[in-house]
RNA sequence: GUCCCCGUAGCUCAGGUGGAUAGAGCGACUGCCUCCUAAGCAGUAGGCCCCAGGUUCGAGUCCUGGCGGGGACACCA
């Protein structure tokens, strides 16, 4: 790439002046009239060299004047260097994009190393809600971004099938079961009020008959618990599959007890000498590692707090070889971050293990009013209901288009809108219309856009400002992808795609035959047409790859629902 | 009281390691289809970037202190 060559030349010049540790930028300016590339190096050198930045810039411009591929260099503003590249150099990126095809944007930052992304991790006590939906979308796309960046990614879902919540669920199902058999039985204190519990109870009745009608004992509760957890886990898996999210592994909290990991963790922590007894409980000195207060490991009644299986679980991640772990969780879990890390540090794991991405909650609005209620769940809107209403693609996109740390308002009216107002359709439509261009070319007896055409196309013919800007935008895709992956920020991809789609549409409209026949993609000039079809193919590839990272389909045609 | 996140256009939100005139979508207004899908494009209007200090050539961005909103602070999983 020419950017690297220019960057090196700038660095060399600085070294020549005795400054070899200078930090500067060389990137695409927001304003196209500022060239294809711009650098602030003269401004950063000014204080070191004690010279006016514009003088430095002038010297640099002269020095770099002969560099290949650079048409001209301008000194602008307070001392920026603006580089204008040869049209052939700019257009050359299109051939590279087409050659890379569905791999365009892939990188090697991960170098094949393993990384785990843990996300969703919902309790099997009810249907998934919108917070889980946001988390499912975030976790899945972060996983995809990491895969595109060369990591070997493992997707994991941890489910709490051991605690008091599950017991409460079993008690509620049992109560509903007996209600179905005509008994007057109240929902237990702290039980689950959703409709789904009745469904589970009636399925249980169908399978087991009246067997547990007068049995509220341990055996009945155990049977109920197994049954309900199975049903709900299946439902959660179905909802996730319908949302285009799959996991490599589901990890059970119960298994941490049955395979002795919890017990082993207690012993290992005791061996560190950082534990102590107090008021009948066993504590760990987590304050030693920056926690706000020490934590109880084993309660006075001999049972473990959730802290212990959490530590045991993360030790399992480490022991399975995952040195890189990203936990995607709701921000309501932020209180557990320090103590889990403290427990792990006590056992010798590195500070800051694992990495956490905490996201804010989701609210839904329709007609400007917040939507809260769902009959089936008892209170919250479920993910399945949302996907049913707007489709998986739209739901995914809306969950992803905001920064994870920012609260998300899901606007149902906008999500259901099939017009330009809806950013998902804007991006999809741009892709579809580019596909259509190539089809039309073939219908008219010309060559369509393919890699063969791209190789022989003279892309230096693409000189219109709208073309140049779009080409530069396409060339930046790998950089955006890399940044999105390393900062765990899927919304960066959404922003990039919307901007790209906007430039595609501008280019397309500017060349509309009724307005500017000369700028149309399907002009009679073979050479020019082929160059433009190559541009359209490269843009298609970028939009398709970007949507693939988001787990969203890139249609070749858009059919509007009426 | 302690900790985390947020505060940018009427609304919902973007704004790499500090850089040129702070952007997008929606909403409002004005144009553009005999001819590549108008599911689109072009343009206008709309801003004390919560406030006050500080760091420097330069701050929406970094530091400190406030104010406002949300969340977390259990021998609850």
Report a brief summary of the structure.
Helices cover 50% and strands 12% of the residues. The protein has 562 residues and is of the alpha/beta class.
Structure commentary:
The chain is α/β, with parallel strands linked by helices and 562 residues long. Among the domains are: 2-85, Gyrase A, domain 2 (2-Layer Sandwich); 164-242, no CATH class; 423-550, Orthogonal Bundle (Isoleucyl-tRNA Synthetase, Domain 1). 50% of the residues lie in helices and 12% in strands. It has 21 helices and 15 strands. Helix 6 packs across helix 8 and helix 18 packs parallel to helix 21. The longest helix has 25 residues, at 218-242. The radius of gyration is 29 Å and the shape is globular. The mean pLDDT is 91. It binds one RNA strand of 77 nucleotides through helix 2, helix 6, strand 9, strand 10 and helix 12.
Give the overall pLDDT as a whole number: 91
- The outline comes out as globular
Secondary structure tally: strands: 15
Global structural class? alpha/beta
User: Span from first to last CA?
Assistant: 47 Å
Low-confidence stretches: none
**How would you characterize the largest beta sheet?**
5 strands, parallel
Radius of gyration: 29 Å
Instruction: Look at the structure and give the CATH class of the domain at 423-550.
Output: Mainly Alpha
CATH topology annotation of the domain at 423-550:
Isoleucyl-tRNA Synthetase, Domain 1
| Proportion of residues in helical segments | 40-55%
- Number of contiguous helices: 21
DSSP strand content:
5-15%
Would you identify the CATH H-level superfamily of the domain at 423-550? Isoleucyl-tRNA Synthetase, Domain 1
Largest sheet, spatial ordering of strands: 7-6-5-11-12
CATH architecture of the domain at 423-550: Orthogonal Bundle
